[in-house]
């Protein structure tokens, strides 16, 4: 099978484990990739010890953007917010386990961008361009 | 309907060096993305080469030999382009950066001097952002009102809505002659005539139509026409605005600077005549000369033959794509369409489709193609688009379809 | 002062194919018109060639191989250009059609959102029309007030007038870093500092300076810088606007269309981030990549070496021209000047001078050089201008002077 | 001597025969060539038989523009207005007796443009561009 389309990615795309919304939630944030129209919304529950207890996403987009969102939700569940803040481009690439060209890289990073926007409560932490170049 | 035999595709393909590129060893490029930008024949590439190697000079203000030659070539190309769309005069051709800037020029200059709050501009639901956002900006600034000719389920303009819209006494009807998403060829003559009868001007977005269909601005009685060099075998960095002389004369200038003036003092200036009034600063000299060469090339093949070829390919593509289970093609059937096929494939995102096609050498485009509203209309955020031009073949469409089956294999 | 020996002129000249042109049999081109537009080295010509032959694709929205490559090359060139002027970030570089459009962009967007009736903008009396007419247009539209740093008899800015002008609390001081007529190098750092101290922004017209002198926007603390590709070995059809990130972020968009948006509905849009917000429609892709190659070329030679060379040639030209009876050179002496010499010859109109020089192969330019006010200031409607760049030699200046004696012979 | 700079042209440039203004005049008109800043003003006296009895010009510009103005004034002196109206590009070229490139052609035609503007009493009869292409 094609490298980029590893079974893991197709599986997560076709059968996401963390898709959905959380109500109530402590954080919710959404954004899109203007280049391709991909959209991700992330809902979080963060407890009083500043740990992510639950994370869910909804969205529309390609296999890379959706699979990376699903894998990212899995990774941050149970993670202290302080650690979430340190997540970077490489963490996403490690989750996916593939090399990506510049356009698809932004697909992969959309969920990270939304997560950072949501956790930091800022509108634009870093643009997708900046995140991709980071 | 003519067939491709009126064109020698093999000879044409030999003129386009990029068609020999391999996207990876052993996998030849199948370029089905001419709707985004066309490839360039050696005749155009070499003409610009020649300009930079032996003729390069700034124009209009020079008396030395290169400057005189460059001026003549630049203005000569303007004449060729005027003739290509059958403009009455060369001076009705204004050079801009791209079709987008051409629309903005009209919105800024004609728009700001003719539209008041409440005035209506009629667009269509299938417009490219280039013919939408400039009017939205003017609506925000001026309070003008935008109304839209709807798109039917079948992907054509709902012409039954036009009379009602024209009762609003719009000042302008601005619409695409060919949708870059649906491929729809709109009834230009009919809309222009109705617009004029209602007292409105008619502006046509020819970014897709001018490369693919013969264009006659006088026969169609178009007031403004915009198009881009890079989609019709010419270089990037150049767009065209056609405007009827009297309209251009009456419009205030767009940008200020050199070449658009007659006299300048510290606190006042007077403007040059048309078209220079709208061409501030050093123009895209090499690019204009390059577009002149592109027009020569298109003329030599013949726009009728090109239109027939593009249509035949499109018909074939529709036929072949319809065979693929799970494929949904947007837009009308071949009787109202040419030059592209936008589609979705069940279970696979358009982005993934394009990516996997690319691995088989097939260059298509995925996304909203700068026409979000028409995607929203059809309830999809994105499509994959294959678009065709004079150098494409049925064999390339076969390759596309085979590669689509590979996509299905991955997303089974 | 470095001398030309730090540059291998012979090797450099070999890179510029146009320098082999003969304007008529046996008469070699002596190109002394780089102030209007520079010639291009093969490295730039071939880079664009390569793009059109093997890489041509529209950018940003494509996932196929050519589109990804073109996007990377386009954005890579943006990075090179940012570095060339030492911008802090690539996104502070906006691509336009030419320097003229860059000024217009600032006047339209920053100007319309920051300037009210009565607000003062300070320019200078030596501005090119590109940095004059856009502000006059805004003055006509908005009632802003233009004031001017005067030019002295000696052809430099009268800096003693600046404090008085700054007491008017201008919102912007916009001025050329190098006059295209007088060759004057203005005290950029000093003016920017004074402008900032008075609460004004500082915009620099670098159309002439960026090709000829090292530029460091951060060290100079410039707010906006404009320049043109075609004057710095790059292709036509491309200009640059540098703006500090925070300023660009705060400015509304200029033109509407594809690529400058985030989302579009039929009646509303939201804008993309900087710099894309200002780059509506298909950009000048080949040209941007070409300018990237030009910047590589300039870097390889070194801007310090180029500046020294241009200055040495200018000094030599002033010396030789002064020898010619009846020649009047405009502008300051070599201590404040570089890269060009504008002059008149008693008894012969500048147009005739340039024409006869041309018959000897010497390409100069005659006219007002898009700077009528400074000509009016010096009481002449036109001058003949010889301008120099890295490929010129002292021998070429000797040819110019010999040809000038021929002009005198005809108009004796 | 250089072809373009025939003795006739240099002579007329250096010693124009019809330079000056007319006061009173029946027609006066001026215009410039924006490309090079050349400027010509023409004053005419037309009698009641519609014949040009006197013609003078003032101006600034290159040898071609000034010499052609001087030669043109000479030609139209004593000419019926009806005939002045028919003067065209080729008449100017015949007066000068030289071939001209596109830029200098406009220098040569400036006086004709001004004359036509003055005689017809219109602001813009034909632009210089159109005259040059005529
Ligand atoms: C000082 C100066 N500013 C601005 C410009 C305008 O450049 P462009 O014509 O490329 O827009 C020029 C070039 O003519 C110039 O010399
Ligand atoms: C229908 C239509 N209009 C306008 C445009 C804008 O053209 P450009 O990007 O060259 O300005 C395009 C091309 O993308 C188009 O397809």
Describe the protein in words.
In chain A, 46% of the residues lie in helices and 19% in strands. Chain A is built from 6 helices and 3 strands. Chain A has a 3-stranded antiparallel sheet, covered by helices on one side. The model of chain A has no long low-confidence stretch (mean pLDDT 88). By secondary structure, chain B is of the alpha/beta class. Chain B folds into 2 domains: 140 residues, Alpha-Beta Complex (Aspartate Aminotransferase, domain 1); 256 residues, Type I PLP-dependent aspartate aminotransferase-like (Major domain) (Aspartate Aminotransferase, domain 2), CATH 3.40.640. Helix content of chain B is 40%, strand content 16%. In chain B, the strands form 5 sheets. Chain B has a 7-stranded mixed sheet, sandwiched between helices. Chain B has a 4-stranded antiparallel sheet with strand order 13-14-17-16, covered by helices on one side. In chain B, helix 3 packs across helix 11. At the B-C interface, helix 2, helix 3, helix 4, helix 5 and strand 11 of B face helix 2, helix 3, helix 4, helix 5 and strand 11 of C. Bound molecules: pyridoxal-5'-phosphate (2 copies). One pyridoxal-5'-phosphate sits at the interface of chains C and B. One pyridoxal-5'-phosphate (PLP) sits at the interface of chains B and C.
């Amino acid at each position: 099978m094609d490298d980029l389309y590893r079974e893991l990615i197709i599986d997560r795309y076709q059968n996401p484990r963390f898709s959905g919304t959380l109500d109530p939630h402590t954080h919710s944030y959404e954004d899109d990739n203007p280049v391709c129209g991909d959209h991700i919304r992330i809902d979080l529950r963060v407890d009083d010890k500043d740990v992510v207890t639950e994370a869910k996403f909804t969205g529309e987009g390609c296999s890379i953007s959706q699979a990376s969102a699903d894998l990212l939700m899995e990774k941050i569940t149970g993670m202290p917010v302080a650690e979430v803040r340190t997540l970077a481009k490489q963490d996403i690439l490690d989750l996916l386990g593939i090399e990506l060209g510049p356009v698809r890289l932004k697909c992969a990073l959309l969920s990270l961008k939304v997560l950072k926007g949501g956790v930091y409560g800022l509108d634009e932490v870093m643009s997708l361009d900046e995140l991709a170049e980071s | 309907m003519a067939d491709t035999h009126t064109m020698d595709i093999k000879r044409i393909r030999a003129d386009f060096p990029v068609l020999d590129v391999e996207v990876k060893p052993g996998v030849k490029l199948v370029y089905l993305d001419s709707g985004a930008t066309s490839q360039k024949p050696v005749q155009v590439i070499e003409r610009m080469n020649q300009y930079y190697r032996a003729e390069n000079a700034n124009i209009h203000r020079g008396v030395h030999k290169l400057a005189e030659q460059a001026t003549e070539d630049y203005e000569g190309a303007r004449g060729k382009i005027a003739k290509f769309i059958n403009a009455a005069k060369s001076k009705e051709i204004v050079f801009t950066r791209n079709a987008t800037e051409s629309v903005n020029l009209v919105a800024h200059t004609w728009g700001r001097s003719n539209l008041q709050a409440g005035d209506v501009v009629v667009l269509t639901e299938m417009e490219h952002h280039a013919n939408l956002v400039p009017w939205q900006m003017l609506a925000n600034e001026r309070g003008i009102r935008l109304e839209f000719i709807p798109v039917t389920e079948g992907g054509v303009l709902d012409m039954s809505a036009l009379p009602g819209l024209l009762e609003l006494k719009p000042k302008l009807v601005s619409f695409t002659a060919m949708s870059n998403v649906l491929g729809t060829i709109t009834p230009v003559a009919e809309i222009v005539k109705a617009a004029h009868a209602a007292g409105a001007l008619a502006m046509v977005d020819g970014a897709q139509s001018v490369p693919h269909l013969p264009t006659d601005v006088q026969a169609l009685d178009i007031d403004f026409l915009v198009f881009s060099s890079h989609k019709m075998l010419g270089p990037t960095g150049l767009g065209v605005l056609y405007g009827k002389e009297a309209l251009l004369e009456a419009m205030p200038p767009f940008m200020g600077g050199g070449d658009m003036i007659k006299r300048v003092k510290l606190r006042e200036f007077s403007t040059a005549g048309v078209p220079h009034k709208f061409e501030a600063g050093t123009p895209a000299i090499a690019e204009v000369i390059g577009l002149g060469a592109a027009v020569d090339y298109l003329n030599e093949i013949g726009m009728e033959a090109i239109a027939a070829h593009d249509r035949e390919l499109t018909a074939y593509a529709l036929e072949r794509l319809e065979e693929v289970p799970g494929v949904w093609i947007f837009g009308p059937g071949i009787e109202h369409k040419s030059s592209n096929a936008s589609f979705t494939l069940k279970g696979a995102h358009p982005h993934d489709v394009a990516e996997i096609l690319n691995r088989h050498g097939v260059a298509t485009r995925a996304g909203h193609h700068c026409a979000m509203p028409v995607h929203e209309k059809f309830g999809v955020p994105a499509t994959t688009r294959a678009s065709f031009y004079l150098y494409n073949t049925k064999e390339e469409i076969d390759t596309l379809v085979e590669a689509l089956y590979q996509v299905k294999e991955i997303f089974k």
